[in-house]
Design a protein that fits this description.
The complex is a heterodimer of chains A (147) and B (92). By secondary structure, chain A is of the alpha+beta class. Chain A is 50% helix and 17% strand. Chain A has 2 domains: 45 residues, no CATH class; 98 residues, no CATH class. The model of chain A has no long low-confidence stretch (mean pLDDT 78). With 92 residues, chain B is of the alpha+beta class. A 4-stranded antiparallel sheet of chain B has the order 2-1-4-3. Classes of the chains: A alpha+beta (147), B alpha+beta (92).
């Protein structure tokens, strides 16, 4: 309950305004608040829709102009990641067991049958907050992020 | 579904040699479609033979998923500059 709504109800309790006036004022406050929420929603929706996964490796700024430096700039469309996850549904049952076995050998107790297309959007939305920032001992900056 | 990519650019530069390639993917699509139409009786026959075992349905799904993956490549960019090599791949 907001402060304004509380004041209106207090005034109604103290009989400083009629029930009709209180009802009208509460409706006005409610419509203003829902208008504010709807202006915020497109921003949050736009923020939550990642388009690319970016991986960059940049050299040490002190050494940036040198010839013998490694630079990496990779941009992967999220739609490719979605399509790749859908490919898991095409793995034949015989191969699935081998894949699961190989994952278990590496200590990953995961069944590829559990990957469903409807889980993809939630996974990709969660990726929008992913940010990896590593500074190596050689001064190279490794960044993994979503934009 | 996304539109298929139109152009692919590949550039590989080594120490002594390099090569660059511009591939008009949009022009290759009609060619691939023509090949698919020509081979369609064989594909259909293979699907019918494999249908009872479940592989026929999987084969059809592979075709449609492969096209989906191809369309999703739009926007992919790989730019790697090493000490002795540069690799640049861009799909637009």
């Amino acid at each position: 309950m907001t402060e304004n709504q509380k004041k209106i109800l207090e005034m109604l309790a103290e009989k400083k305004m009629s029930v009709d006036d209180a009802y009208r004022l509460l409706n006005v406050i409610d419509s203003k608040e829902s208008a504010r929420d709807s202006t915020l929603k497109p921003e949050t929706a736009a923020k939550a829709k990642p388009k690319y996964l970016r991986v960059t490796v940049l050299p040490d700024p002190a050494n940036e102009s040198g010839q013998n430096v490694d630079r990496v700039n990779v941009r992967v469309p999220m739609s490719l990641i979605r399509a790749g996850i859908k490919l898991t549904s095409l793995i034949p049952p015989e191969a699935r067991e081998k894949v699961n076995g190989a994952l278990r050998e590496k200590g990953i107790d995961f069944d590829v049958r559990n990957v469903k297309p409807e889980d993809i959007e939630g996974l990709i939305e969660a990726l929008s907050d992913l940010e990896v920032d590593v500074l190596s001992s050689k001064g190279e900056k490794v960044k993994v992020f979503v934009e | 579904m996304k539109r298929p990519p139109m152009l692919m650019r590949v550039k590989i530069q080594g120490e002594n040699r390099g090569f660059g390639l511009w591939l008009p993917l949009l022009l290759l699509l009609p060619l691939a479609l023509a090949v698919l139409i020509i081979l369609s009786p064989l594909i259909l026959l293979a699907v019918l033979i494999l249908w009872p075992s479940g592989w026929g349905k999987r084969a059809l799904l592979v075709l449609s998923t492969a096209f989906g993956v191809f369309c999703s490549l739009r926007g992919l960019r790989v730019d790697i500059q090493g000490r002795y090599q540069c690799v640049y791949i861009s799909i637009v």
